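Hello, quick one for you while I still have it in my head. No rush at all, and the record is pasted right below.
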Amino acid sequence: MLTNIFAQMCLLLDTLPIGVLVLAPDLTVLFWNSLLTEWTGVQREQIVGNPVTDLYPDLGAIRYAGRIRPIFEGGPPVIFSPQLHPHLIPSVRADGQKRIQQTTVTPIVIDNGVYALASIQDVTDLMLTAQESRRLHQLAIKEIERRKAVETALQESSERVRSIVDTAVEAILVINTDLLVEEFNKAAERIFGYRADEIIGKNIDVLMPDPYLSEHARYVNDFIKTGRAQIIGVGKEVTGLRKDGTTFPMRLGVSEMHVNNKMLFTGIISDITEQKQLEEQLRNMAMKDGLTGISNRRFFDEALDREWRRMLRECGELSIILVDIDFFKRYNGTYGHQEGDACLKAVATAIDQSAHRPGDIAVRYGGEEFALLLPTTDLNAATDLAERIRRSVLALAIPHSASDVAPHVTISLGVANIIPNQAAKPEILLTLADQGLYAAKAAGRNRVKVTNVELSDQND
């Protein structure tokens, strides 16, 4: 009986666009799907019937085997994250990159026997860069070629097949040409928040908000009429809609199959919320200055370009303040780099706290130089803010015995303002502010300069 169940299970698992293997309690490999063969080059006959540790001895370590073995004694499923266990089954992609994997090991019960089903997802693209994360795997194409075998397995033992499908981490949906849901597995229930009986027979539009729903319906109808595949066998990143009305990013792979002369579409869906959050965290980290904690030059350049275009559309004013700590190299030479770092942090905090409005952006521009980007701010308001910043740094009273200006740390500031127009570029605003900063230094430092107008001096 186990052989018959196993044969039915293998037909299904061999079509999934994820690596799948089944382990006995002694870690003997009972099944090794075609995708793992493709990834690793290890043929099924080389590994099935042998301990997985023969080919992958690292899996015998406590960090792997010690977490898998409790599954056979009633323990919960185990997740091996791509951050801590990136290469559970080592394999190399065609581009030479070592494959990064997320693996879930789940107990399955067949004829009262407990086995471990490991589903392995290739998340290399997501983990490398945001651009590469949008490249979807080609595995759904192979699913089309194997679909007849899946149809036969579903017809012979639909309940047994469903129990296996429901152990998958990915949501699996089947819809017909009217976009009505016919199958909805346990992972889909968990991801979308619906019970299967609430969704089966309903239109797929309850799971996808516009514009993705309209696009998906158009792709399906176009495929039915012309046979031209746009997402079939390719996949796409879209937005899903949960029962509670919240949306989430998901990866959707779609394949087409025929059952009893009826065209159906199978969707494999992964919730990629955590991956997107990680990407956003990494992006935010890349936009922060490591020493001061405020935004960095890269963030400033992007913000300047964005706000320039916005002010161009709105005919609004855009101001910039450039700030430089006076005689900072002497400060480092006198007090040391540790105190120099503390000085930079204190000045950065004073500048950042002066940028009160949500749209104001304070950044460390480079070295001891800082900048403030001020959308919808006229020249007078920007100049007043620059003067307040100058005074706030004076109020810090950081000793600076090597300064030619004052016995404590001071700053010089250059202010520029412009109403963006099509004939100008954002760089002109930086150039004007830099000229003002140069003029402030040339006039004796510890002051604000707007072109040739002196707004403060070192004696007040």
